[in-house]
Specification:
4 helices; mainly alpha; 84 residues
Length: 84
């Protein structure tokens, strides 16, 4: 394989990986469902949707405690909105 063709194939592979990070990042993939599909199916809205997002990705990005704290923050925000 010549150098130019090898370089083109590598560029194509990197483009596909970047597309996956935008459209279907690994940290939002479950065994059967993608996080956004769950959020939309349950019509959760912004705050609850973000809480679910952070809970479901907590073990996938190496910042479990931080993601769980973010989830709590969004849940508290939703509770506070109920009091308005």
């Amino acid at each position: 394989m010549n150098y130019q063709k090898q370089k083109e194939e590598q560029k194509d592979m990197e483009a596909q990986e970047n597309k996956e990070m935008v459209n279907h990042p690994d940290h939002y993939q479950g065994n059967k469902f993608e996080v956004i599909d769950v959020i939309e199916d349950y019509n959760l809205g912004f705050s609850l949707g973000n809480a679910i997002k952070y809970i479901l990705r907590a073990d996938k990005k190496g910042a479990r405690k931080q993601d769980l704290k973010k989830a709590i923050w969004y849940i508290q925000r939703e509770i506070d909105r109920e009091d308005l």
